[in-house]
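Appendix B, example 12.
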Amino acid sequence: MRRMNGQIWALSLLVAVGSNGQIPPKPSIIAVGPYLQYMTRTNVSILWETSEAATSVVEYGEQVPLTSRAFVEGQSEMHEVRLERLKPQSCYFYRVLSKGTSGEESASEVYSFQTAPEDDVAYAFGVVSDTQTNPPVWGRISTLLFAERPNFVVHAGDIVGEGDKKEQWTEHFLKPAHKLMSRVPVFAILGNHDKDHANYYRYIANPSPEHRYTFTYGNAQFFMIDTNRSVDAVSDQYQWLDHELGRSKATWKFAVHHHPPYSSDENDYGDTWKGQSPRGDLKVRPLVKLYEKHGLDMCFVGHIHDYERTWPIREGKVDSTRGVIYVQAGGAGGGLEDYAPTRSWFTAKVHRDHHFVIVSICDRTLQLQAIDQNGVLFDQLTLRKRGQDHDGRDALGGNLGGRVDAVAARHLHVQDHQIRAQQLGQLDGLLPVAGLAHHFVALFAQHLGEIQPDQRLVLGDQHSPGRARAAVGRGVAHAPHSVVAAGWSNSEGHRLR
């Protein structure tokens, strides 16, 4: 019996120590994250979740070892630390640390991020929607998207399949995209499947009221709208959007929301195999009037699980001089849908596959690329704006007094393997962005001499209770053209909750 007890003790010790003779580390209490949210030129939010109530600490700096610390008093399972007084367009390194009730401290790996740039710097952003309940696809999409090294990503809603299920936020959305989201901020908006649930406010950090907001990045301004709520002309959202669009002086203006004003899907807005369809969501059509009034450049939407890009649209018809382009990018995970059997009058390009969109901007040149889950480029568009008015605004803005011209689509006859090689050559940094924009402008140089200086060219076809929050460095002024959003202070640069 004594011998047997000794054997059992020895076996237990072997299991505890491990085959290499070392005691294995205790499991980390960091269950989800860290990941980045709502970045500006000087601020960023870092979020993570622990498996038990714990303290919150972020170590950060411009080099390793990390010399600055930010923390939240008290203990919580969900943590948010907002770093402030950062340098614009600067790379920072960070890690998070949490100490649980047992006294054990867990630390993440060291990650990095880059703050937003000034107006005159080239940048790129990704567009996704409808990640829903499909971790394998979303994992592939997020990996391919990170390979493009975007400065940030916008998400047009339906982040998960069932917003009231916590595990879908952690296991289906955050964990598969950890490589991306730990280094690149994602600006998201609600979809119908998210159900406006407390989980959205727990895991997504936006300025109050969080279901709609606006932010600037470089020379662009983004208007994030909750189309699950009313956008009728008398609604609060409509009035807010009219005001914010009217005051915007950004060179590029983009709207992001879930439901599409125009879409060629086969059944969401009527069974197009058996009857007529409004070819889009009539509940959000009132927004079109605002977009046309204020010279919006593009509107990114989801809801329909496929890709569609429209021709420039104004007053219910294709208008190459003053139209708004709508890009449906609902293919980041949800089950694929299909198109109506007849082509819509507004359709420029459709594609049925899981995908993402990458948009690169260098000053007044924009390049859009749509890439499928295999890394194959299947659509691209280049826009170039020419000239400014006396206020420095683009001639397209405001009252649309400027003239816009369209050049007929001239597709580059590039084979798939050539396209793939081109993508792989663009993986590092922002220099290829500027270079690529220059390349496309050069391709159409023969047409530029015919364009007037004021033309736009078309080339190519309340958080949930319990989340610990901190803001570090309060009282610091933002740089010019910083965030203009309800619930934020332009003079102090911190969240007003």
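Residues 123-459 form a domain with the Purple Acid Phosphatase; chain A, domain 2 fold (CATH 3.60.21.10). Residues 2-17 form the longest helix (16 residues).
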